[in-house]
Amino acid sequence: MAAWLTMFPAGAGVILPPIETKPIRECVELPAYRCGRIQAVQQRLTELGYNPGPVNGEMGRKTHEALKRFQADKKLKKTGKIDTATLKALDFCCVKPTSAKFKAAAPKECRK
Q: Closest Cα to residue 88, out of 72, 76, 102?
């Protein structure tokens, strides 16, 4: 019998403090269109304090650098690109768009 079991005999009324747990962030579905994906990633990086610049759906220098910092912190390959490993680390569901749905779902400004 383990020594720690003998310290608290059955019925001793030992009350243990509650264990603090963080809520699990659910997988967030990513928009199918490119600028929507970039915008969602920019928003998530902002929430995490990585400052990707404006949340505008454009892959600028600040977004690229914020991605590289995030990837480094998560011990991912530092590409500065939105890849599958990075999306998973950001808690996004990885959805590969089909061509018909991809065009239909994209707002006009994203259909460049």
A: 76
